[in-house]
Design brief:
150 residues, Alpha-Beta Plaits, 2 domains, Arc Repressor Mutant, subunit A, alpha+beta
């Protein structure tokens, strides 16, 4: 008999690769009956291990031709400055990810835009409009040989 945690881990790995796989095919891949597999998936959903399913839309379809990771250092290290910056990030469509990090800066952003001109406008209008930014360092993505964010 297989370890239950090993089976759940296998189910999660398969679903991460193909969230639209049928229960019948998923059950075959992980070595369970379809009913046992469905119960296992429903339990993972109920417990919040599986938080949801979504479509991965191509960058071309979203007209994204420019991706950058942007490191942001704040001039004021107050909760108000942090919350204000996070509010800006939540409302800016170009900011696809915002992470509060440790180190020499406070935030790491993944920014996606149509092109360099659109990034420049975002840089000027959105980031430039926030008074508490002390440093901005932009790292342009040249290619992504591995990207498991789905």
């Amino acid at each position: 008999m297989s370890d239950p945690d090993h089976i759940s881990d296998h189910i999660l790995r398969v679903l991460q690769q193909d969230g639209r796989i049928s229960n019948l095919d998923l059950a075959a891949k992980v070595g369970l009956s379809p009913s046992a597999c469905l119960r296992r998936v429903q339990e993972l959903e109920r417990r919040g291990v599986i938080a949801g399913y979504r479509a991965v839309i191509s960058a071309e379809a979203r007209e994204v031709g420019f991706v950058a990771y942007v490191m942001i250092g704040l001039s004021h290290h107050s909760i108000d400055a942090q919350l204000g910056f996070e509010r800006i990030c939540r409302t800016a469509a170009q900011v696809r990810e915002c992470h509060n990090i440790t180190g020499t800066v406070e935030y790491l952003l993944r920014v996606e835009c149509r092109d360099l001109a659109a990034y420049k406008q975002f840089h000027t209008d959105v980031l430039g409009g926030f008074a508490h930014i002390a440093t901005i360092a932009t790292h342009v993505v040249m290619s992504s040989p591995k990207d498991d964010r789905a």
